[in-house]
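Per reviewer request, we include the raw input and output of the structure prediction for the construct analysed in the revised manuscript.
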Amino acid sequence: MAIFSKHDSEKPSNSVIKPITKSGGVGATIIASGTKIKGDLTLSASLHIDGEIEGIIHSDNLITIGPKGRVNGEIITQSLVINGVFTGSAKSNNIEILSKGNVKGKLTYAELTIEKGASFEGETSVQSTVSDKNKISDISSHQKADTYLQNIAEKKPKHK
């Protein structure tokens, strides 16, 4: 497994990501196998995809593409786990490509993990972590999200 982080001194976390909704409860949206969606999705809960989605997906939580899942488009989220097929661009604090994951496109991340057996073809860029105070859900449109995340990536760390 390979781990790429903006800060080499940081060690990978072995903690489990639990989807938490804004109301404090645990919740998830599931796109079942055999389901096809074409369009844009905006969620505050986590999303698990075993079906097919073509479009733009925004989530404040975890997005998981299961082994049977296929996504073609753009993903903007806090955490992304890919164990199916993803084609497009993704912007996330944490991206993990599991052993059955197949990715073609551009990944923008603070931390990237690629397991042995995974397939990745494309380009990557490191971004600063999105703070809790400025969550992606507070951005009203796709263009604002691009500008917002680009501005974060361009900021230089403060030295004490």
